[in-house]
Amino acid sequence: MTLLKNPVFQQLRKSGALSAEEEKRLLELEEKPRRVDACETLWHENDRVDAFCVLKQGWAYSFRTLDSGAKQILKLYLPGDIIGMRDFGFSRRLAGVEMIDEGVVCPFSHQQFFEVVDYSATLASGIVAIAVRQQAMLTERLVYVGRHTAQQRLAHFLYELYLRLSRIDAVKDNTFSLPLSQEQMGDALGLSSVHVSRTFTMLRDEGLVLRDRQRVQLPDPAALACMAEFSDAYLDESIPSPFLDLHVIRSRAQLRHA
Amino acid sequence: MTLLKNPVFQQLRKSGALSAEEEKRLLELEEKPRRVDACETLWHENDRVDAFCVLKQGWAYSFRTLDSGAKQILKLYLPGDIIGMRDFGFSRRLAGVEMIDEGVVCPFSHQQFFEVVDYSATLASGIVAIAVRQQAMLTERLVYVGRHTAQQRLAHFLYELYLRLSRIDAVKDNTFSLPLSQEQMGDALGLSSVHVSRTFTMLRDEGLVLRDRQRVQLPDPAALACMAEFSDAYLDESIPSPFLDLHVIRSRAQLRHA
DNA sequence: AAAACTCTATAACTTATGTTATGAATTTTT
DNA sequence: AAAAATTCATAACATAAGTTATAGAGTTTT
Fold first, then answer.
1. What is the pLDDT along chain B (258 residues), one digit of tens a residue?
2. CB contact under 8 A, A147 and B94
């Protein structure tokens, strides 16, 4: 997975909004791949912000630790996601990030990012759009953690994952791998691990979710989405047309500079 | 309140990172002020995304409406905030936005934003940093809605407001105006209005919050922050040093282009 | 292969918060 | 100024989710 394969950049590319040089610059952010182990910490809460990462392989999550020792998992990162944009413009990390399984990340520095932004407004806007989309998932979780039952929360969580994984071809026969313990899912959804277990049992009894260890199957994804009151607008991948005209604006601006 | 007065741009300015032309460009985003009434809708969920707004005067909030008719309030906007960056890169609004009291907004278009980004990486980064800071508040609310008691949630909400209002000089004698009904606070915190009322009573009994209609007084803000387990990192206004060197990177890049 | 862990399911019990209802206090409309 | 509509406080009751405990199933270590 590269950034260039992200649907946002795919659309820009197809519409001819990306020059060869821009594609090259974007790929330069992924120049320094690094293997990371399962459970490895990428950074801690409160560390100095020095780098962002493209996640090439593996799963990761960001989290906050509370005084009580409880964890709140903020965001699950899948291959192709950018990790750490949440901290852009802050001196210190607002959240820790850990790998779930082993994988590969490509760190890039503040300065590299600035250079890309400075070189191309199109690349800058594309990266911001990707970051905004990631935040949108978090916003959506606030809605359902605040207002929905445990069943709906878990159903929503599983269905969102199902959609995200589908897009990177990680779903076969409505089945995917979910390398999270029930405790971790509880930490993401604001539920106790016991209640996550109870809720899985209920979802199984209703025929909505079959699970065997890390294998999860959704026999009727539509029914699951419906009971979770899932609204997929926030996962919409299509970018608005003004975006595609960016390079036009850009050329006009260059004319003006000249 | 102008964008230029936002702490992010104030810092850039003081460190000499903003040219006169850049300041001018930034102010051009605020060229079309419009009076808006109390309770006026700025846009609905699912509207086409056409503009963003600088909120000059008054309070606003963004929200999602659920199938059940319940509302989840996502974010409170105070003067100096940018409204709508959450939807950047999406075709449709993910949330509605309404004014709370009357005020003034300055809408600017996608295209105007692109032109600013294209003109200056410094301005682009500054605006992104402001948007990231706003999202950070939302992320923080996920943490306490997911993991904290009603008392802590309300305490956190009030203390965060107290800090944000302090920065725009809207707090006198630890007292500020809060033009939200208890039902609306419930909608923000994922609580019923009845329980918000109960919780206010508890906070009063503990001497942490005095309230008379829209006047709210925090006799001991530090104690309130403590009981809410408030961590103020996410409201930190200082931007990291690579930011301040942006114009240096920029000039280097221009040299390379030449 | 046994031992030690970790994860999961389920039960019993507790508690925080939701729901419904009522009356008083404010605010808005007529 | 009266009437109508909100908003707020409080009570009584209902319930979803938390907590603690136990045992089995899987996994890892020895």
1. 889 999 899 999 999 999 999 999 999 999 999 999 999 999 999 999 999 999 999 999 999 999 888 899 999 999 989 999 999 999 999 999 999 999 999 999 988 999 998 899 999 999 999 999 999 999 999 999 999 999 999 999 999 999 999 999 999 999 999 999 999 999 999 999 999 999 999 999 999 999 988 999 999 999 999 999 999 899 988 888 888 777 776 666 666 555
2. no
Number of inter-chain CB pairs under 8 A, A vs B: 187
- For B57-115, give the DSSP string: ES-EEEEEE-TTS-EEEEEEE-TTPEESGGGTT-SB-SSEEEESS-EEEEEEEHHHHHH
A183 touches strand D (CB under 7 A): no
Stated as kind and residue range, the H or E segment containing A99 is: strand A96-99
pTM: 0.93
Domains (range + CATH), chain A: 1-138 (2.60.120.10), 149-228 (1.10.10.10)
C-alpha distance from A9 to closest chain B C-alpha (Å)? 11
E strand or H helix that includes residue A97: strand A96-99
Q: A111 touching B, CB under 8 A?
A: yes
Q: Which residue is nearest to nucleotide C8 (CA to C1')?
A: A197
